[in-house]
Amino acid sequence: MKTRSSRADSKREKDKLINEDRRDFLKLSAMAAATPALLRSPQAAAEAPILPPSPATRPWVMELPKQIVPAAHVPYLTPAPTELANVAGGEAGRGRHQHWARFRPGAEYYELRAKEINWVFNPAYPSQKIWSYRAANTPSNEYSATVMAHYGTPTLCRIYNDLPANHTGFGTPEISTHLHNQHCGSESDGFPGDYYSATKAGPSLTAPGKFKDHLYPNAYAGFDTPPNSTGDYREALGTLFYHDHTLDFTAPNLYRGLAGFYLLYDHLDSGNEADPTPGALRLPSHPYDYPLMFADRLFDASGRLYYDQVNPEGVLGDKILVNGLIEPVLKVAARRYRFRLLNTGPSRFYDFALVNPNNVKQKFTYIGNDGNLLPNPLLNMQSITLGVAERADIVVDFSKYLVGTTLYLVNRMRQEETRLPKDIKEPGVRVLKIVVDRWPSAQDLSQVPATLRPLPPIDPAELAAAPVRRFVFERRQNMWAINGQFVNLSSPRFVVPKGRGEIWELMNIDNGWSHPIHIHLEEGRILSRERDGEQLPVPPYERGRKDVYTIHENETIRIFIRFRDYAGKYVMHCHNLIHEDHAMMLRFDVQ
């Protein structure tokens, strides 16, 4: 009779073989589908093929909607949600929901569907199939559903996989949806091995399924210390986004469109600029709270999406999507707006500036980084740098401009390969045209107060006693590795005791690429940046709480981080999605 230990070892070995077979299948199938002209030798596989540029587009003819329609919640779910996976009812075989008794009552229900739809990126290109997360009320002119939720009201989000099972081309029709920066149980975190469809299940699920339920507590971190507390409001999250996280296929599935915004509000950042509650920040609110998603894409000669999911150098897009459109127009009222900027990648870095038609930079107020409000606003800013998966919240006061004024959001960051950005080049490439086309229909009651959200203190004694973990991010064997190892989701590299503060050192030992590193479950605080033994200043916008840490050439970042409230399996990875899909990821467990 096999012992429990031997059975566990056998399962881990089986999981490992599944992962290896899956990667082999990815490579073989993608090579078989590759354009015949792109023949590769083993040596050429290490280099990105030289591809022709995307065909010319027609700028400033497509309009973004003047306001985003929030996804509507539904009164009930059928079948009813359950603590254990309802495999018999069609749910994928996830783990038990943690803190179910606390967060299930009072939860708002949402249904999102990952599905294939027709989309036009630009009038110069044909309508084509993309993949998108949709709610029942998502308008046809919105690239994906936007969820607006509130602390104190949990969200139970049922995500259906309606992608075509007979899909051909890049990407795979399984999904595992990660709500980036959400503080939630591992069973709802979108673990890369939790991918599912009606006929397939990832190695960390027990069964396939048409849908999977995700319990998002919308509770401040620390809610279980002590048990049943409210957590620390200084840990509030604001601008989150969800995206597919399927093992080996994150980049191509996002390339097809599987990403959307999830915005969180609380008593401070209440989403109501007329909020009479003392202490409410009264930042610009919907419809003047406007998310902007940026993504780089390459198109073939016929104007259709092109992606190479085999080459570890990937594809650098030369067209920038803004909420799914190339060179769109956004018409705004002459009042304050809150813009939430998100870089979904897969590989391009940005340095954004707002300019007039003569390329004169305009000023704005920087209020949040990685979706978290800073302690104080940064005034009179003129640029924003975003690595992949980083976010920035800014406030622009359009009341300073006459109706009829035209402005442009430009990208000044030059990048010639997927590995890293090159430099800043003026005046930049125009990616979004903004036209002040009307006076506001009501008085602008919004403001940007001098104090936003304070930071939770770090105890110097705890910091001095914190254990240190070191992670080296490097190129290895034509792939991407962490501490010399490739991803293996079947077992953790290490276990973190729940509640203990630690210092993590993130090291980039090479001078040929940059790595935006994302850690699931918790945010951290940057303690220092160092390059070649010299301390670097931490820029003001990085001095808040963060969940993405971009380590540039020969750089080391030290962060303080603490994993609370939940146990289970989580991952750390490079959010240059090409690096992630080519093995720069590790699993760690919290116990």
Set out the fold topology.
Elements: H1 4-33, H2 100-103, E1 108-119, E2 128-134, E3 147-150, E4 155-161, E5 177-180, E6 211-216, E7 239-244, H3 250-255, E8 259-265, E9 289-299, E10 305-306, E11 319-322, E12 325-326, E13 329-333, E14 336-343, E15 350-355, E16 364-369, E17 372-381, E18 384-386, E19 391-397, E20 406-414, E21 423-438, H4 460-465, E22 468-476, E23 479-482, E24 494-496, E25 501-508, E26 515-519, E27 524-531, E28 534-536, E29 545-546, E30 548-551, E31 555-562, E32 568-574, H5 577-581, E33 585-590
Explain this structure.
The protein is mostly beta strands and 591 residues long. It contains 5 helices and 33 strands. Strands 9, 10, 11, 12, 14, 16, 17 and 19 form an 8-stranded mixed sheet that branches. Strands 22, 23, 25, 27, 28, 29 and 31 form a 7-stranded mixed sheet that branches. It is globular, with a radius of gyration of 23 Å. Mean pLDDT is 92; it is low at 1-18 and 27-46.
Structure keywords:
591 residues, mainly beta, eight-stranded mixed sheet, 5 helices, disordered N terminus
Short description:
The protein has 591 residues and is mainly beta. 9% of the residues lie in helices and 35% in strands.
- The proportion of residues forming helix, as a percent range, comes to under 10%
**Count of individual helical segments:** 5
Could you tell me the strand content as a percent range?
35-45%
Principal-axes geometry comes out as globular
- Which structural category fits the helices and strands? mainly beta
Radius of gyration using CA atoms only:
23 Å
Summarize the main sheet: 8 strands, mixed
Overall average pLDDT? 92
Terminal CA distance reads 29 Å
Q: Compute the number of strand runs.
A: 33
Low-confidence stretches: 1-18, 27-46
